[in-house]
Amino acid sequence: MKWLVLLWLVAFSECIVNIPLTRVKIMRKTRSEKNMLKNFLKEHAYRLYQTSSPGSNIATHSLRNIDDMVYVGNITIGTPPQEFQVVFDTASSDLWVPSILCTSPSCSSQVLFRHNESSTYRHTNKTFSIEYGRGSMKGVVGRDTVRIGDLVSTDQPFGLSVEQYGFEGMPLDGILGLNYPNISLTGCIPIFDNLKNQGAISEPVFAFYLSKSKPEGSVVMFGGVDESYYQGALNWVPLIQAGDWRVHMDRISLEGQTVACYSGCEAIVDTGSSSILGPRRLLDKILRSLGAKPRGSEHYVSCSAVNTLPSIDFSINSINYPLPAEAYTMKDSRGDCFINVEVNPVSTSTETWILGDVFLRQYFSVYDRGNDRIGLAQAV
Protein backbone atom coordinates (compact mmCIF):
# COMPACT_ATOMS: atom_id res chain seq x y z
CA MET A 1 0.00 0.00 0.00
CA LYS A 2 1.47 3.30 -0.98
CA TRP A 3 1.01 6.27 1.27
CA LEU A 4 1.84 9.91 1.66
CA VAL A 5 3.05 11.68 4.69
CA LEU A 6 1.29 14.94 5.56
CA LEU A 7 3.09 17.36 7.83
CA TRP A 8 1.87 20.00 10.15
CA LEU A 9 4.04 21.79 12.69
CA VAL A 10 2.99 23.42 15.91
CA ALA A 11 5.75 25.66 17.25
CA PHE A 12 4.90 25.50 20.94
CA SER A 13 7.37 28.14 21.99
CA GLU A 14 5.93 30.76 19.63
CA CYS A 15 2.78 31.11 17.55
CA ILE A 16 0.79 28.21 16.16
CA VAL A 17 1.60 27.31 12.54
CA ASN A 18 -0.54 24.96 10.45
CA ILE A 19 1.06 24.24 7.06
CA PRO A 20 0.04 21.10 5.10
CA LEU A 21 2.74 19.71 2.81
CA THR A 22 2.73 16.59 0.67
CA ARG A 23 5.52 14.43 1.90
CA VAL A 24 7.50 11.33 1.14
CA LYS A 25 5.74 8.22 -0.03
CA ILE A 26 8.40 5.90 1.30
CA MET A 27 7.74 2.25 0.50
CA ARG A 28 4.99 -0.14 -0.51
CA LYS A 29 3.76 -2.53 2.12
CA THR A 30 5.21 -5.48 0.22
CA ARG A 31 8.66 -3.87 0.34
CA SER A 32 8.48 -2.39 3.83
CA GLU A 33 8.49 -5.76 5.57
CA LYS A 34 11.65 -5.83 7.59
CA ASN A 35 13.11 -9.05 6.16
CA MET A 36 12.71 -7.87 2.56
CA LEU A 37 14.18 -4.46 3.37
CA LYS A 38 17.16 -6.00 5.14
CA ASN A 39 17.79 -8.33 2.20
CA PHE A 40 17.69 -5.41 -0.24
CA LEU A 41 20.03 -3.24 1.79
CA LYS A 42 22.45 -6.13 2.29
CA GLU A 43 22.43 -7.05 -1.39
CA HIS A 44 22.97 -3.46 -2.56
CA ALA A 45 25.15 -2.15 0.25
CA TYR A 46 27.84 0.30 -0.82
CA ARG A 47 29.44 3.45 0.49
CA LEU A 48 27.71 6.70 -0.40
CA TYR A 49 30.30 9.31 -1.18
CA GLN A 50 30.85 12.88 -2.32
CA THR A 51 33.16 14.02 -5.09
CA SER A 52 34.36 17.36 -6.33
CA SER A 53 35.92 17.35 -9.78
CA PRO A 54 39.42 18.90 -9.98
CA GLY A 55 39.09 22.57 -10.92
CA SER A 56 35.32 22.43 -10.46
CA ASN A 57 33.23 24.24 -7.86
CA ILE A 58 30.50 21.59 -8.09
CA ALA A 59 30.14 19.26 -5.10
CA THR A 60 28.47 16.01 -6.16
CA HIS A 61 26.96 13.76 -3.49
CA SER A 62 25.82 10.21 -4.22
CA LEU A 63 22.29 9.01 -3.49
CA ARG A 64 21.03 5.45 -3.29
CA ASN A 65 17.90 4.43 -5.18
CA ILE A 66 15.81 1.95 -3.21
CA ASP A 67 13.42 0.19 -5.60
CA ASP A 68 12.59 3.43 -7.47
CA MET A 69 10.59 4.40 -4.39
CA VAL A 70 12.96 6.62 -2.37
CA TYR A 71 16.43 8.15 -2.82
CA VAL A 72 18.65 8.54 0.23
CA GLY A 73 22.10 9.97 0.91
CA ASN A 74 24.48 10.09 3.86
CA ILE A 75 25.23 13.15 5.97
CA THR A 76 27.06 13.57 9.26
CA ILE A 77 26.20 15.68 12.28
CA GLY A 78 28.41 16.63 15.21
CA THR A 79 32.05 16.42 16.34
CA PRO A 80 33.18 13.70 15.95
CA PRO A 81 30.77 13.12 13.04
CA GLN A 82 27.74 10.83 13.43
CA GLU A 83 26.35 9.47 10.14
CA PHE A 84 22.69 9.47 9.06
CA GLN A 85 20.80 8.41 5.94
CA VAL A 86 18.35 11.10 4.80
CA VAL A 87 16.02 12.01 1.96
CA PHE A 88 17.08 15.21 0.14
CA ASP A 89 13.68 16.83 -0.29
CA THR A 90 12.73 19.86 -2.39
CA ALA A 91 9.23 20.20 -0.87
CA SER A 92 10.34 20.97 2.69
CA SER A 93 12.98 23.19 4.28
CA ASP A 94 14.00 21.53 7.54
CA LEU A 95 16.57 18.95 8.56
CA TRP A 96 15.63 16.45 11.26
CA VAL A 97 16.98 13.14 12.57
CA PRO A 98 16.05 10.85 15.48
CA SER A 99 17.56 11.60 18.89
CA ILE A 100 18.98 9.40 21.62
CA LEU A 101 16.21 10.94 23.76
CA CYS A 102 13.61 9.13 21.63
CA THR A 103 12.01 6.20 23.44
CA SER A 104 9.45 5.29 20.76
CA PRO A 105 9.71 1.75 19.31
CA SER A 106 10.37 2.99 15.76
CA CYS A 107 13.55 4.74 16.93
CA SER A 108 15.11 1.39 17.79
CA SER A 109 15.60 0.65 14.07
CA GLN A 110 17.12 4.05 13.25
CA VAL A 111 20.46 5.73 13.86
CA LEU A 112 20.04 8.10 16.80
CA PHE A 113 21.87 11.39 17.25
CA ARG A 114 23.85 11.36 20.49
CA HIS A 115 24.04 15.04 21.39
CA ASN A 116 26.05 14.33 24.52
CA GLU A 117 28.86 12.87 22.39
CA SER A 118 29.27 15.96 20.19
CA SER A 119 31.58 18.72 21.38
CA THR A 120 30.03 21.25 18.98
CA TYR A 121 26.36 20.64 19.89
CA ARG A 122 24.30 23.54 21.26
CA HIS A 123 20.89 23.10 22.86
CA THR A 124 17.94 25.44 22.25
CA ASN A 125 14.63 25.75 24.08
CA LYS A 126 12.57 25.48 20.92
CA THR A 127 10.22 22.51 20.56
CA PHE A 128 8.09 21.33 17.66
CA SER A 129 5.54 18.70 16.73
CA ILE A 130 4.81 17.17 13.32
CA GLU A 131 1.63 15.24 12.48
CA TYR A 132 1.82 12.75 9.62
CA GLY A 133 -0.81 10.93 7.59
CA ARG A 134 0.12 7.67 9.36
CA GLY A 135 2.46 8.75 12.09
CA SER A 136 3.73 11.63 14.16
CA MET A 137 6.80 13.03 15.87
CA LYS A 138 7.74 15.53 18.53
CA GLY A 139 11.15 17.01 18.98
CA VAL A 140 13.51 19.79 19.97
CA VAL A 141 15.72 22.06 17.89
CA GLY A 142 19.48 21.85 18.36
CA ARG A 143 22.52 23.32 16.62
CA ASP A 144 25.64 21.53 15.42
CA THR A 145 28.05 21.06 12.52
CA VAL A 146 26.44 19.25 9.56
CA ARG A 147 28.43 17.81 6.68
CA ILE A 148 27.23 16.75 3.25
CA GLY A 149 30.40 15.14 2.01
CA ASP A 150 32.99 17.94 1.90
CA LEU A 151 30.39 20.67 2.40
CA VAL A 152 30.30 21.90 6.00
CA SER A 153 27.52 23.95 7.62
CA THR A 154 28.56 25.14 11.09
CA ASP A 155 26.10 25.93 13.88
CA GLN A 156 23.31 24.47 11.73
CA PRO A 157 19.87 24.33 13.40
CA PHE A 158 18.11 20.97 12.99
CA GLY A 159 15.34 18.95 14.59
CA LEU A 160 15.88 16.02 16.97
CA SER A 161 12.89 13.75 17.44
CA VAL A 162 12.09 12.60 20.96
CA GLU A 163 8.84 10.81 20.09
CA GLN A 164 7.86 9.31 16.74
CA TYR A 165 5.32 6.81 15.49
CA GLY A 166 4.70 5.18 12.11
CA PHE A 167 8.32 4.98 10.90
CA GLU A 168 8.88 1.25 11.36
CA GLY A 169 10.64 -0.43 8.43
CA MET A 170 11.60 2.78 6.64
CA PRO A 171 15.07 2.84 5.02
CA LEU A 172 15.96 6.31 6.28
CA ASP A 173 16.84 8.17 9.44
CA GLY A 174 15.54 11.63 8.61
CA ILE A 175 14.82 14.31 6.01
CA LEU A 176 16.97 17.15 4.68
CA GLY A 177 14.80 19.91 3.21
CA LEU A 178 15.99 22.01 0.25
CA ASN A 179 13.07 24.39 -0.15
CA TYR A 180 13.03 28.13 0.60
CA PRO A 181 13.40 29.35 4.20
CA ASN A 182 9.94 30.93 4.32
CA ILE A 183 8.28 27.51 4.55
CA SER A 184 10.57 26.22 7.28
CA LEU A 185 8.35 24.52 9.84
CA THR A 186 10.81 25.01 12.67
CA GLY A 187 11.51 28.63 11.79
CA CYS A 188 15.20 27.79 11.34
CA ILE A 189 17.54 28.67 8.49
CA PRO A 190 17.73 25.72 6.04
CA ILE A 191 21.08 24.06 5.46
CA PHE A 192 21.32 25.21 1.83
CA ASP A 193 20.99 28.84 2.94
CA ASN A 194 23.61 28.32 5.62
CA LEU A 195 26.02 26.78 3.10
CA LYS A 196 25.44 29.72 0.78
CA ASN A 197 25.84 32.33 3.52
CA GLN A 198 29.01 30.68 4.84
CA GLY A 199 30.58 30.60 1.37
CA ALA A 200 30.68 26.80 1.12
CA ILE A 201 29.10 26.85 -2.35
CA SER A 202 30.05 29.22 -5.16
CA GLU A 203 26.59 29.54 -6.77
CA PRO A 204 23.12 29.29 -5.16
CA VAL A 205 22.20 26.28 -7.31
CA PHE A 206 21.66 22.57 -6.74
CA ALA A 207 20.54 19.78 -9.07
CA PHE A 208 19.33 16.16 -9.07
CA TYR A 209 19.99 13.19 -11.31
CA LEU A 210 17.87 10.17 -10.31
CA SER A 211 18.83 6.75 -11.66
CA LYS A 212 16.35 4.25 -13.03
CA SER A 213 15.95 0.70 -11.69
CA LYS A 214 19.39 0.49 -10.09
CA PRO A 215 20.64 1.44 -6.65
CA GLU A 216 23.73 3.35 -7.76
CA GLY A 217 24.26 6.37 -10.03
CA SER A 218 21.91 8.95 -8.49
CA VAL A 219 23.39 12.26 -7.33
CA VAL A 220 22.55 15.63 -5.84
CA MET A 221 25.03 18.36 -6.77
CA PHE A 222 25.60 21.73 -5.13
CA GLY A 223 27.11 24.95 -6.49
CA GLY A 224 26.60 24.28 -10.20
CA VAL A 225 25.47 21.85 -12.88
CA ASP A 226 27.34 18.88 -14.36
CA GLU A 227 26.30 18.75 -18.02
CA SER A 228 27.25 15.08 -18.35
CA TYR A 229 24.00 14.11 -16.59
CA TYR A 230 21.66 15.44 -19.27
CA GLN A 231 21.36 15.82 -23.02
CA GLY A 232 19.96 18.59 -25.19
CA ALA A 233 18.95 21.99 -23.90
CA LEU A 234 18.42 22.89 -20.27
CA ASN A 235 15.06 24.66 -20.29
CA TRP A 236 14.48 27.25 -17.58
CA VAL A 237 11.05 27.66 -15.99
CA PRO A 238 10.32 30.69 -13.74
CA LEU A 239 8.72 30.00 -10.38
CA ILE A 240 5.18 31.22 -9.84
CA GLN A 241 6.70 33.24 -7.02
CA ALA A 242 9.93 33.08 -5.06
CA GLY A 243 9.55 30.96 -1.96
CA ASP A 244 8.50 27.53 -3.25
CA TRP A 245 9.60 25.17 -6.05
CA ARG A 246 6.25 25.60 -7.81
CA VAL A 247 5.79 26.40 -11.50
CA HIS A 248 2.96 27.04 -13.93
CA MET A 249 1.98 24.08 -16.11
CA ASP A 250 0.15 24.65 -19.40
CA ARG A 251 -1.65 21.32 -19.83
CA ILE A 252 -1.47 17.52 -19.49
CA SER A 253 -2.30 15.54 -22.61
CA LEU A 254 -2.55 12.03 -24.04
CA GLU A 255 -2.01 11.55 -27.78
CA GLY A 256 -2.52 15.25 -28.41
CA GLN A 257 -5.75 15.50 -26.41
CA THR A 258 -5.79 17.56 -23.22
CA VAL A 259 -6.91 15.39 -20.29
CA ALA A 260 -6.07 17.67 -17.34
CA CYS A 261 -4.85 21.16 -16.54
CA TYR A 262 -7.20 22.52 -19.22
CA SER A 263 -6.77 26.19 -18.37
CA GLY A 264 -3.33 25.91 -16.86
CA CYS A 265 -2.50 24.76 -13.35
CA GLU A 266 0.32 24.60 -10.80
CA ALA A 267 3.02 21.95 -10.49
CA ILE A 268 5.27 21.31 -7.48
CA VAL A 269 8.61 19.74 -8.37
CA ASP A 270 9.21 17.37 -5.47
CA THR A 271 12.17 15.00 -5.01
CA GLY A 272 10.56 13.72 -1.79
CA SER A 273 7.51 12.20 -3.52
CA SER A 274 7.92 9.02 -5.50
CA SER A 275 4.96 9.35 -7.87
CA ILE A 276 2.80 11.79 -9.84
CA LEU A 277 0.00 13.24 -7.70
CA GLY A 278 -3.08 15.10 -8.86
CA PRO A 279 -6.80 15.71 -8.26
CA ARG A 280 -8.88 12.52 -8.07
CA ARG A 281 -11.36 13.44 -10.82
CA LEU A 282 -8.62 14.18 -13.35
CA LEU A 283 -6.50 11.19 -12.37
CA ASP A 284 -9.51 8.93 -12.85
CA LYS A 285 -9.95 10.29 -16.36
CA ILE A 286 -6.30 9.61 -17.22
CA LEU A 287 -6.47 6.09 -15.78
CA ARG A 288 -9.63 5.30 -17.75
CA SER A 289 -7.96 6.58 -20.92
CA LEU A 290 -5.05 4.21 -20.27
CA GLY A 291 -7.38 1.28 -19.71
CA ALA A 292 -6.16 0.77 -16.14
CA LYS A 293 -8.30 -1.40 -13.86
CA PRO A 294 -8.55 -0.76 -10.11
CA ARG A 295 -7.27 -3.41 -7.72
CA GLY A 296 -7.02 -2.32 -4.11
CA SER A 297 -5.42 1.11 -4.03
CA GLU A 298 -3.65 0.66 -7.37
CA HIS A 299 -4.69 0.72 -11.03
CA TYR A 300 -3.26 -2.09 -13.14
CA VAL A 301 -2.56 -2.70 -16.81
CA SER A 302 -1.31 -5.77 -18.61
CA CYS A 303 2.49 -5.81 -18.60
CA SER A 304 2.41 -7.01 -22.21
CA ALA A 305 0.51 -3.84 -23.15
CA VAL A 306 2.89 -1.34 -21.52
CA ASN A 307 4.88 -0.74 -24.73
CA THR A 308 1.62 0.13 -26.53
CA LEU A 309 0.46 2.76 -24.03
CA PRO A 310 0.83 6.44 -24.95
CA SER A 311 3.08 8.87 -23.15
CA ILE A 312 1.60 11.32 -20.66
CA ASP A 313 2.70 14.74 -21.90
CA PHE A 314 3.30 17.60 -19.47
CA SER A 315 3.53 21.03 -21.11
CA ILE A 316 5.52 23.47 -18.97
CA ASN A 317 6.45 26.97 -20.11
CA SER A 318 5.41 26.04 -23.69
CA ILE A 319 7.76 23.02 -23.79
CA ASN A 320 6.46 19.46 -23.88
CA TYR A 321 7.87 16.89 -21.43
CA PRO A 322 6.60 13.44 -22.44
CA LEU A 323 6.58 10.70 -19.82
CA PRO A 324 6.65 7.30 -21.61
CA ALA A 325 4.68 4.32 -20.32
CA GLU A 326 7.80 2.49 -19.16
CA ALA A 327 8.46 5.51 -16.89
CA TYR A 328 4.98 5.82 -15.35
CA THR A 329 4.36 2.08 -14.85
CA MET A 330 5.95 -0.12 -12.19
CA LYS A 331 5.83 -3.79 -11.20
CA ASP A 332 4.60 -4.90 -7.80
CA SER A 333 6.06 -7.79 -5.80
CA ARG A 334 4.05 -10.29 -7.89
CA GLY A 335 5.30 -8.90 -11.18
CA ASP A 336 2.01 -7.18 -12.10
CA CYS A 337 2.14 -3.71 -13.67
CA PHE A 338 0.42 -0.66 -12.19
CA ILE A 339 0.27 3.05 -13.03
CA ASN A 340 2.43 4.99 -10.57
CA VAL A 341 0.09 7.91 -9.90
CA GLU A 342 -2.02 8.77 -6.88
CA VAL A 343 -4.51 11.27 -5.56
CA ASN A 344 -3.13 14.45 -4.02
CA PRO A 345 -4.73 14.49 -0.53
CA VAL A 346 -4.11 18.21 -0.03
CA SER A 347 -7.11 20.29 -1.07
CA THR A 348 -6.09 23.48 -2.91
CA SER A 349 -8.01 26.38 -4.40
CA THR A 350 -6.20 25.90 -7.71
CA GLU A 351 -5.54 22.68 -9.63
CA THR A 352 -2.19 21.43 -8.33
CA TRP A 353 -0.03 18.51 -9.48
CA ILE A 354 3.07 17.10 -7.83
CA LEU A 355 5.86 15.97 -10.14
CA GLY A 356 7.77 13.43 -8.07
CA ASP A 357 10.48 10.92 -8.83
CA VAL A 358 8.49 9.26 -11.63
CA PHE A 359 8.91 12.50 -13.59
CA LEU A 360 12.35 13.40 -12.25
CA ARG A 361 13.94 10.11 -13.32
CA GLN A 362 13.13 11.14 -16.86
CA TYR A 363 14.22 14.77 -16.51
CA PHE A 364 17.36 16.14 -14.87
CA SER A 365 16.31 19.02 -12.63
CA VAL A 366 18.13 22.18 -11.53
CA TYR A 367 17.01 24.47 -8.69
CA ASP A 368 18.33 28.01 -9.10
CA ARG A 369 17.77 30.07 -5.94
CA GLY A 370 19.67 33.01 -7.40
CA ASN A 371 17.18 33.47 -10.23
CA ASP A 372 14.08 31.79 -8.71
CA ARG A 373 13.72 29.22 -11.48
CA ILE A 374 13.88 25.50 -12.22
CA GLY A 375 15.79 23.96 -15.10
CA LEU A 376 14.66 20.74 -16.83
CA ALA A 377 16.47 18.64 -19.42
CA GLN A 378 16.31 15.08 -20.74
CA ALA A 379 18.29 12.88 -18.35
CA VAL A 380 20.97 10.61 -19.85
Present the secondary structure layout.
Layout: E1 6-7, E2 9-10, E3 21-22, H1 29-32, H2 34-43, E4 50-52, E5 59-66, E6 70-77, E7 82-89, E8 95-98, E9 122-132, E10 135-148, E11 151-165, E12 174-177, H3 191-197, E13 205-209, E14 218-222, E15 230-238, E16 246-249, E17 251-254, E18 257-260, E19 265-269, E20 276-278, H4 280-289, E21 293-295, E22 298-301, E23 312-316, E24 319-323, H5 325-328, E25 329-331, E26 337-339, E27 341-343, E28 352-355, H6 357-360, E29 363-368, E30 373-379
Parallel strand pairs: 7-12, 8-11, 19-28, 20-27
Antiparallel strand pairs: 1-3, 2-9, 4-5, 5-6, 5-14, 6-7, 6-10, 8-12, 9-10, 10-11, 13-14, 13-29, 15-30, 16-19, 17-18, 17-23, 20-28, 21-22, 22-26, 23-24, 25-26, 29-30
Textual characterization of the structure:
Residues about 1-40 and about 45-55 have low confidence and may be disordered. About 45% of the residues are buried. The strands form five sheets. Strands 6-7-12-8-11-10 form a six-stranded mixed β-barrel. The chain is mainly β and about 375 residues long. Helices cover about 10% and strands about 45% of the residues. Strand 23 (about 310-315) and strand 24 form a beta hairpin.
